[in-house]
Design a protein that fits this description.
Structural class: alpha/beta
Number of helices: 10
Radius of gyration: 19 Å
CATH superfamily of the largest domain: Alpha/Beta hydrolase fold, catalytic domain
Strand order of the largest sheet: 1-2-3-5-4-6-7-8-9-13-14-15-10-11-12
CATH topology of the largest domain: Rossmann fold
Distance between the termini: 31 Å
Number of strands: 15
Oligomer: single chain
């Protein structure tokens, strides 16, 4: 394992390799972020939750550190007490900058990328680092094709991941979106449907207890449409999820590292809340019929219901769909798809003004 750098706050980034049985002995690289305090001799047995970050295509393991600025963003939130310390792992999902595996087990069985990630990488990290080695404290997130990969891998393996975030991803296996000559899907329609979250999400065991977060901008064609369609499908199926639709800052495109960096603090906050307060143990959110008339004010990561006290924001997301539109307006929909505009303060979790 090679040491790359250490931050002022005390976190460290290392580079290592994993030999993959699923990929016939291939050696793949990864980068890992260890939080402040990980090397503290006074806390030699402390264990940490793990977030796996998947790059897009073209892409490689260095992207989330070099372009996504994942380490300084996480450390700012840790330093300010917004999230608890965590480990972040950035694996090489392609085996080459210009390859695109889509993180699936290839149609002909010659490259089992999903097994590599969920088996070889996760097991290696749990053996060699002080992780909280259970699905509750393990999350997977990604951008673009990595967003597709995160959702597809996570839903295929809820025993590994209970929190999934897809930023500007897609939710149907489309050969036309594969970068370069590599074709992981082949010509089998059944194989593509088996790797299309849109088609199989309702069949995932325990999916209603998972954190599913999907995000995009209004001008990210065609990915905005893909995300909206998946959001609509989840609503029809009454599957709890979070949908963030955020307008990029002026001059920033909706499918870029600048935009994904702006979303990342929100992703970290929501996953952290999922880790610290499992959905199954949270107070019940207000019933859907009350949302038709309730005015909802969110502040400091908490949701205030008129005359009903304070309910953690996570419990709202556990039972309802939360949408963010341009500006500071959010809508909350119950299991029947009804929505009600709410008033959102500038520091609300859904605006991402968390740094």
């Amino acid at each position: 394992m090679a040491y790359l750098f250490r931050s002022r706050a005390g976190g460290s980034v290392y580079e290592g390799t994993v030999r993959s049985a699923a990929l016939h002995g291939a050696l793949r690289s990864y980068e890992i972020y260890l939080p402040p305090g990980y090397r503290d001799p006074a806390r030699p047995r402390a264990r940490y939750p793990v977030l796996y970050l998947l790059h897009g295509a073209p892409g490689e393991a260095t992207n989330w550190i070099c372009h996504g600025q994942a380490a300084p963003i996480a450390e700012t939130l840790i330093k300010n007490g917004r999230i608890a310390p965590l480990i972040m792992v950035m694996p090489d999902g392609n085996g080459g900058l210009r390859r695109d595996t889509e993180y699936v087990n290839k149609w002909n069985g010659r490259a089992n990328e999903m097994d590599y990630l969920t088996g070889d990488v996760v097991s290696y990290i749990d053996r060699h680092y002080r992780t909280l080695a259970d699905a509750q404290h393990r999350a997977v997130a990604g951008i673009s094709s990595g967003g597709y990969g995160a959702m597809n891998v996570g839903l295929h393996h809820p025993e590994r991941f209970q929190s999934i975030a897809s930023l500007c991803g897609y939710y149907v296996a489309l050969r036309g979106l594969v970068f370069g000559p590599n074709d992981p899907f082949g010509h089998s329609r059944a194989f593509r449907r088996a790797n299309s979250p849109y088609d199989y999400v309702a069949m995932v065991p325990g999916v209603r207890r998972m954190l599913l977060l999907i995000a995009d901008s209004p001008n990210d064609y065609p990915f905005t449409r893909f995300t909206q369609q998946f959001d609509a499908q989840l609503n029809v199926l009454a599957i709890p999820h979070v949908f963030l639709l955020r307008q990029p800052e002026e001059g920033v495109t909706g499918h870029s590292w600048e935009f994904w960096r702006s979303l990342f603090p929100t992703v970290l906050r929501m996953i952290d809340e999922r880790w610290s307060a499992p959905m199954a143990t949270l107070p019940q959110a207000p019933p859907a019929h009350r949302l038709a008339t309730a005015s909802i004010t969110m502040s400091g990561g908490r949701c205030r219901w008129p005359s009903d006290g304070v309910v953690p924001l996570r419990s709202v997301c556990a039972a309802h769909h939360v949408r963010e539109d341009k500006g500071h307006t959010a809508g909350v929909a119950g299991r029947r798809g009804r929505s009600q505009a709410g008033v959102v303060s500038p520091d609300v979790m859904l605006t991402g003004a968390l740094q």
